[in-house]
Amino acid sequence: MLKTISNSATPKYLAVLVAICLIQLVIVWHAINFFKISLTNEFVMKGGKDLEFLSQTISKKLREGNLLSVADFIQNWGEHKLGRISEVTLTSADGEILSQYLSPTPSPANYQNPLSTELTLSDSDQARLKLVVDTGFIRPKLVQLGSYFAAICLVLTTLLSFVAFLYLRKRNLLQQLHQHSLQLNRTISELQMEMSARSKAELELIESEKKYRTLMDNQSDAIFLHRFCADGSINFTEVNQRATEIYGYSRDEFLNLSPASITPQGEMRRLAEEIIPQQLANHGWMFFRSEHIKKSGETIKVEIKGTLLDWQGEKYILATARDLTERLKIEQKQEQLEQRILHAQKLESLGVLAGGIAHDFNNILMIILGHSELAQRKLNDSAPAREHIEQVKLAARRAADLSNQMLAYSGRGTFVVGALDLSRLISEMEHMLSVSVSKKAVLRYDLHPQLPSIEGDPTQIRQIIMNLVINASDAIGNKSGVIAISSGCMDCDQNYLKETWIDETLDEGMYVFLEVADTGCGMDKETINKIFDPFYTTKFTGRGLGMSSVLGIIRGHSGAIKIYSEVGKGTTIKALFPASNLSLSLDDKDRTTAPLDLKGTVLLVDDEESMRSLGRNMLETLGLKVVTATDGRDALRTYQARREEIALIIMDLTMPHMDGNEAFRELRRIDPDVKVIICSGFSEAEISQKFIGKGTVGFLQKPFQLTELHQTIFDFKSQ
Questions:
Q1: What is the distance between the alpha carbons of residues 104 and 20, in angstroms, rounded to a whole number?
Q2: How far is CA 252 from the centre of its chain?
Q3: What are phi and psi of 517, to 5 degrees?
Q4: How far is Cα 115 from Cα 85, in angstroms, rounded to an integer?
Q5: Largest separation between any pair of C-alpha atoms in the chain
Q6: In this structure, how many other beta carbons lie within 10 angstroms of the beta carbon of residue 47?
Q7: How do beta strands 441-446 and 481-492 pair?
Q8: pLDDT tens for each residue of 660-709
């Protein structure tokens, strides 16, 4: 039974059992004692009656004087009362036993209940009668009663023990039930918390997976997760969406592939043996460029970055592959652009130098040509020196042409700017071009009949055409070939213009083009990069500035040039000029010829004495009066003093103290209607930009001859 009660309840149960037993023992003891006392008192009361009976009987017999009968009476009565009376003793006052009965089988002392009384024998004698009531006969009854009580107590104890057991069992079960209930509640609460945490973890896992997948699939690079297998191979275990887009494989197809499946065999061997093990061993990561093969078979350049990972006892490599196709194109374009910028900067530096030299050189040539012409005018036609002077003028003109080429190279060489019909200009040159090219070269023309006009110098444009056609003829050489010359117009945006050889920012819009294509030997990339260098040539002998002057002329016309060439196939060069809204000008034959003599006073301003002297002689030859000034300040003082007399000012642009531009502004403040002709070694296009909207300004390009000076003054005064 105790086994069914928990260890904590067993001491309580035993305590209850002991308490029940003690209580029953106390009850039984009190019950038996009570029964004993009750019987004892009952028999003692009877003994008292017997004592009274004996006392009366013995007193009577003693009064009769029959002592022996008293003794016999006491003996007989005692025997008669055997088992009830254990002693009857009659003693005198002095303690002498007069008669006595003693039971042969007295009970233990605790069952002896003595009673005594005093007897009067005579007037002077007293006696004591002692009666001991023996209640030992009730002991069997007490034992039997005890047995009954013991049996009853045993039954009661058993019942009470069972009741206590049931109570304690119930209590224990209730406690266990409560504990189990608490434990169950805790378990339920823990399960709920665990389920909540698990649900939260599952949601976080789903969200994390979603974020992971979103991050993976929204990367611009392909991402691969490689796993090292037990057999030493490496397989893909995860790829992102970008990888499927770049390589053309689906995700399931990728998971059945390995890096060797998308890498050329030789490249994979090099990476596996040299690059990857070394970088992983040294750094734990890898970074290199390689080649990959798409599903379509196309090979692409990629940049690989990878990190070694250790997860759940297995080794992985997390790698990204960046497609370098667009970057390489951009880098190639950037490299080409940088080369063109460096080339343009070099040409610009040389152009600045060439322009400065040409400007000073033109001043010197102006003196040579001017004095030669003046000297020639003073000689008669039969003078021997006239031929020598003509040779001097011819040499000076050649030098002037070289100077003009230097200005063209510097981008400052457009002289007489006007509206031109490019197709018409090419048509006029057909005969000249046909005699300039090789006899084995065939010229073919494809000229647009109605092109927008362009603003330019016809001489410079002719030089471009001639240079390009002669270069095409030289490229064909002794073989038969075709030179195709075409013109047209096209709409050019910034992307198209950025691919040209002009580094300046050009405006978008309509451009008229001249295209010269040949079927000659073509050029490689290195040759194309050097084609615009001054004096660079692939011919046996140099031809001067060549293509560098072409580039300068085109730059001076705000145009662009494109070159496409393949070795062994030929070259195509396209020159582009901004379309203009100007109407085409009349032919030179329609111009009004200036009269031989001019009238009026001219203020000539130049800082060089030789130029002032030459200019005075040339102007006086034309019949004009001349007043000179050494610089801009001197010109202002002279004009203020002789304003009513001076009809025209011819002024050099580059002077110390106050240059021509500043002097012109001050002259305009004095007289808004002042007429000024600017002389310069630079081009009209460059000079005219500085004086747009500033009133009546003419231009005279150095070096010039007397006839040019004559016509310019006449045209300007006629406006």
A1: 43
A2: 28
A3: -120, 140
A4: 11
A5: 237
A6: 23
A7: parallel
A8: 888 888 988 888 888 888 887 766 655 666 665 555 567 787 778 788 88
